[in-house]
Structure formats: C-alpha cells, structure tokens
Amino acid sequence: MRHARLVGGLLAAALTAPTVLTSAPAAEALPAVMIHQVVYDSYGATRDDYSNSSLNAEYVVLRNTTSTSRTVTGWTVTDATGFRYTLPTTTIPAKGTVKIMTGKGRNTTGVRATTARHWGRGSYVWNNTGDTVTVRNRSGARMDTCRYTDKSTRDSVKSVYC
C-alpha cells in the first residue's frame, strides 16, 4: 500500500508539473548556391608558369544545392584583396555546378552538370598561403564565404572543399 501511494503521488506530481519541451536545434540549411571548392595552387608553386592552362587550373566551383535551376547572372565572386568577377548570363542546373576559371577561354553551359565561366585574367587570383572567397548576389547580399589557409610546403595541386 505504501508503494501504491508513493507511485500515485509521483504520477500526480508528474501530471501537474509544468512541461518543458526541448528539441534539438535544426540543422543549418545549406544555401541554395554555395562555394563548393577552391583550387588555389594549380600546379604547385615551382611549376606555376602563368600560362593560360595554368591559370585555368586555378578555379572556384559554385554548387546549386537545390532541385531547381538557379539564375546567378550578375552575382560576384571576390577575393580578400578585391579582385572581382561578375557572372555573365548564367543559370546553374538543379544540383549542378558552375566552374569559374581564372584564365581565358570559351564559356560553356552544362545541361546537367558543370557550366564553365572564364575570368579572363592574365595572373592568378587565389593566394597559395590563404585567402577569402566571397559570393554576393546581384543586390550585393553575401550568399557564401569560404576562408582557407595553407602552410603546407608540398609542391602539388592544392585545393579546399568549403
């Protein structure tokens, strides 16, 4: 009988006590268009020759994380010192990417995968020791940022996934 009263009392207390509901924080949603990869040392420091093929081996990849195509016309990609590339008429397919290469070349549009854009520069943009990549929409709102540092002495292609 004593146990029945104790259990009954605990049950009554539990039913009349205020209830606090907690939930785990929701996972942060991915941006619709995000910086996916930065290749910042295209051939390794001792082999950088400023050729167009070397410049085009340095690039930034933007990824569309959604299931619908996204127009990024007029968006900008900048580094920490202010080098700026403005995307021309560009739509990234659903789950697709746009690869922005530093050098010169012919822009191409991918139907299901990668769209290629060329910055048209004659020198490198992304610093081998570290830099900040910022993507802004055509209104100037920051859409994504990726900071990287590299203290590595290895002489090979260096990249970071953001």
Automatic annotation (TrEMBL):
Residues 1-26 form the signal peptide. PROSITE patterns: LTD. Keywords: Signal. SUPFAM superfamilies: Lamin A/C globular tail domain. It holds the Pfam family LTD. The keyword Signal applies. It comes from the Bacteria. Residues 21-150 form the LTD domain. This is Lamin Tail Domain. It comes from Kytococcus aerolatus.
